Amino acid sequence: MVTATPPIALGLVPGPEVRETAVRAALRTVHDPEIPTVSIVDIGLVHDVRIDADRIAVDLLPTFVACPALEVIRSTVADALSGFGRPVDVDFTFAVPWTTDRLTAKGRAGLLAAGIAPPSAPTDVRCPFCESARVVMDSAFGPTLCRSLFYCRDCRQPFEAFKPA
């Protein structure tokens, strides 16, 4: 019995298999444009990754609805995945709400490295520079929707704290 193989058009070569682990590894190289010490994986934005024969689809959870960095994140994700040789669809979803529980330990460490206190109740915020608990909130409204402004009474440094959500 002879079986026929499907014809392949000249010049078209089937692309290599794309694995989800490789896509997720590439997503770890995409950093939050407002917090460059934290990847979008470690901040918990990646909700779903789907790989089909002809495309890669990524669903992200925005930290806040009006986050001004969403389009920058979308284009950076598309650029990071372009090397897989397939069209990339990047969408934001509200299928589940993003919460600060999605932050990984590496994400929390990245916040500290940027001088931003990880999320906690305002009474539990510690200074990211000297770890003092003698801090006061200057403003619930920081430079972005997800951060508040604090002042450390011990090292006298102003700092931002990621809001719990």
Largest sheet: 4 strands, mixed
Termini separation (Å)? 64 Å
Beta-strand residue fraction: 15-25%
Q: In CATH's first tier, which class of the largest domain applies?
A: Alpha Beta
CATH H-level superfamily of the largest domain: Fe-S cluster assembly (FSCA)
Mean pLDDT, all residues:
90
The low-confidence parts are 1-5
Sheet with most strands: strand arrangement:
6-9-8-7
Give the domain tally: 2
- Radius of gyration, CA atoms, in whole angstroms: 21 Å
Task: From the 3D structure, determine the CATH topology of the largest domain.
Answer: GMP Synthetase, Chain A, domain 3
Number of continuous helical runs? 3
Q: What is the string of SSEs from the N terminus onward? A: HEEEEHEHEEEE
